[in-house]
């Protein structure tokens, strides 16, 4: 009886030790789809001894600041042009994790006032994100539709000041990205990041008047500090995110609103 009790204690101790040995990996993310994707891979990482802890944010600044300040290990919410712009503006040095390109969220234009972009009236008010990379992304998409002409069509960060031809005399309203869905009642057209569109119950593949193609250069990445970018835990995170299981998860759950980029 004593031997059995000791054996049971020994097994319990081993189990606790194994649990305690799990490496904690803290990752910042916006709620949709990033946190949903991360939560989906939690069990797979747990089997590899990694306790993935997902911290949700509703803006695009704090997830980078939290990683830079070493409060968190990595983040998953942004594309490379945004990270480049953030690093430049904030004198930050975050990097894209090697092989950390995960998915594209095709950027779309939405309206409650017109059903077809051909019906957009002269002088219409168009809401776009107020950060350089996503604001530029919106203008590039408008240019692709022939609504405006830009000074440098190859630049990824044009601003309304770079519009050289505006035949409909569109008026641009620059807003914080999370506020764009709420602005739909007040503007004629809003160009909205897909994560915020999904949160607002908009279906990008059905509700957008026009949308980026799958060849978008704005693939979402995992970012980290240079000293953590190649850590074993983050390497396993990337492997899990770029798995066939996640590819199927994206296809089944988002129906084309989130497209694998691997």
Quick tags:
single chain, 262 residues, alpha/beta, D-Maltodextrin-Binding Protein, domain 2, six-stranded mixed sheet, five-stranded mixed sheet, 9 helices, globular
Compact description:
This protein has 262 residues and is of the alpha/beta class. It has helices at 2-20, 31-47, 62-68, 80-90, 132-144, 194-199, 204-207, 232-241, 244-254; strands at residues 23-30, 50-57, 74-79, 95-104, 108-110, 125-129, 149-150, 163-165, 171-175, 189-192, 210-211, 219-224, 259-260.
Structural summary, described in words:
This protein has about 260 residues and is of the alpha/beta class. The chain folds into 2 domains: about 1-105 and about 215-260, 3-Layer(aba) Sandwich (D-Maltodextrin-Binding Protein, domain 2), CATH 3.40.190.10; about 110-210, Periplasmic binding protein-like II (D-Maltodextrin-Binding Protein, domain 2), CATH 3.40.190. Helices cover about 35% and strands about 25% of the residues. It contains 9 helices and 13 strands. It has helices at about 1-20, 30-45, 60-70, 80-90, 130-145, 195-200, 205, 230-240, 245-255, and strands at about 25-30, 50-55, 75-80, 95-105, 110, 125-130, 150, 165, 170-175, 190, 210, 220-225, 260. The strands form 3 sheets. The protein has a 6-stranded mixed sheet with strand order 2-1-3-12-4-13, with helices on both faces. The chain has a 5-stranded mixed sheet with strand order 9-6-10-5-11. A two-stranded antiparallel ribbon has the order 7-8. Helix 2 packs across helix 8. The protein is globular, with a radius of gyration of 22 Å. The relative contact order is 0.19.
């Amino acid at each position: 009886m004593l031997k059995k009790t000791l054996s049971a204690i020994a097994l319990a101790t081993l189990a606790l030790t194994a649990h305690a040995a799990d490496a904690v990996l803290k990752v910042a993310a916006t709620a949709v789809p990033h946190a949903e994707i991360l939560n989906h891979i939690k069990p797979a990482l747990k089997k590899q001894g990694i306790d993935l802890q997902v911290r949700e944010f509703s803006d695009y600044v704090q997830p980078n600041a939290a990683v830079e300040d070493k409060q968190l290990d990595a983040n998953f919410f942004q594309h490379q042009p945004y990270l480049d712009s953030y690093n430049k503006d904030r004198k930050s040095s975050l990097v894209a994790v090697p092989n950390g390109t995960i998915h594209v969220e095709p950027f779309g234009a939405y309206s409650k006032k017109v059903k077809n972009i051909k019906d957009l009236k002269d002088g219409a008010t168009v809401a776009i994100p107020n950060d350089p990379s996503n604001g530029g992304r919106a203008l590039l998409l408008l240019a692709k539709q022939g609504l405006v002409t830009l000074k440098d069509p190859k630049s990824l960060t044009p601003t309304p000041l770079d519009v050289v031809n505006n035949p409909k005399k569109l008026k641009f309203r620059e807003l914080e990205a999370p506020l764009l869905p709420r602005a739909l009642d007040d503007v004629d057209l809003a160009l909205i990041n897909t994560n915020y569109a999904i949160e607002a119950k908009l279906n990008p593949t059905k509700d957008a008047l026009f949308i980026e193609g799958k060849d978008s250069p704005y693939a979402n990445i995992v970012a980290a500090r240079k000293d953590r970018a190649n850590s074993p835990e983050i390497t396993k995170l990337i492997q899990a995110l770029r798995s066939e299981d996640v590819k199927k998860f994206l296809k089944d759950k988002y129906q084309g609103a989130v497209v694998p980029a691997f």
